[in-house]
Amino acid sequence: MTATTTPNLLVLHCHDLGRFLGAYEVPTVVSPHLDALAAESVLFETAFATAPHCSPARASLFTGTYPQTNGVLGLTHDPFGWDLNDPSSHLAHRLRTVGYRTELVGVHHESRVLPDDVVAARLGFDRVRTGGDRDVVVERTADALDRAAATGRPFYLQVGFHEPHRTPSHADRPGVMGFLGETVRPDDSLGHTVPPYLRDDPGAREEIAELQGAVRHMDEGVGSVLARLDALGLREDTVVVFTTDHGLALPRAKCTLYDPGVEVALIMRVPGRAGWSGRRVPDQASHVDVLPTLLELLGLPSPGDLPGHSLVPVVETGAPTRTYTFGQLNHHIYYDPKRSVRSAGHKLIVNFSNAPLAMDPTQSWVHRSLPADLRGPSVASSTAVELYDLAQDPHETRNVVADPAYGAVLLEMAGALLAWMSETGDHLLTADPLSDRHREALAFLARATPPPQPPADPGRSGVTAGPAAVRERERETA
């Protein structure tokens, strides 16, 4: 891009991928097109969604706000029907108001699911064509690119692939929903990578082969879209982003606040800007950082009330990144409210209901994959508070909340979580708890957060304790 070019923006996203790509060092996944894109882009190694399921995660991605703020606390299709409080907060609306041609192809699940023309009018798209498998999405995207190239106006094109979401197939056994649909074939050509949080057994390997096939299928679609962009001569004028909504649709991943539930691939190709090629950024990033990053890359002002921070200084100047990332779950197939805060070394999860340890994301009666830490014949209830040492226990299997050695960490993390919940107007911070567990969770946060301390003597070094101090440290380091 030249200094006088108004960049185009192409956002490619898919369902339920997590970081299950060759570019993220998964050796048995065949994803050459996304791996090639990553090699010429900035790849964020430790990026997270704000929620471990579709609609709340996507609402955060496209508005730059947390679900508690934007209103999407659950799925946006019937019978759930959650919706954005302010549809004009969508990225498409922001870009259309400054002259961008805007179009959506494929997956739309970040606001109330309505007819395409209604979605377009509400979110700020000139045209919306939802639905379709990979080949339909590729065909429609090629058409959108052709028309955009002919206008000469800068464009925003949002392209969502359904794959690798679980999809019914005639090949599925009764009680099972796999990853194949009617067009995907299993792929174990390079073997199987069974995630460490699952038992490595024949059932898991069968499921992973299907998942690998679905990822390969989606990757081919991404390759076709990028090839069309190049053929039209738009490569050097277009910022390309690839990401996903949340983690893999496997037990102890999707629908949980453990890292496998909220981890996401995040790849950005920015032609013409130094430092945006062949880079891997190890520090934490959140989906709420994407919108302010894109606005800065496009040369547009960012609203001052967004909770995220542009990643441009992180990439271009080595500025410090955020201290914490936050996650939340409210409604998926049932109400299971929980909140999390993650630092570079620790994760705190607070469970506000007595739901099972992990919500089932398989959409199946019969499970082929089982959690590695499964114990006993029954489904246990979650504990109120979980604390994990990610350096010693990266798979979050040993809860150290009762270990006095982690007392200072627990205090810090609880303060950060409570401050974030307060700032987002979280409905869980209510004076009328919904249950004994809800009351227990609130009591923990109150006990773990010390009262505000007097300001430090200006002549002495010190840091004010409590949520306000945590917020200030977050601002300074984010």
Automatic annotation (TrEMBL):
Protein name: Sulfatase
The organism's taxonomic lineage, starting at the top: Bacteria, Bacillati, Actinomycetota, Actinomycetes, Kitasatosporales
UniProt keywords, alphabetically: Hydrolase, Metal-binding
Domain Sulfatase N-terminal: from-to ranges: 10-299
Renumbered residue ranges of the record's region Disordered: 447-478
Gene3D superfamilies: Alkaline Phosphatase, subunit A
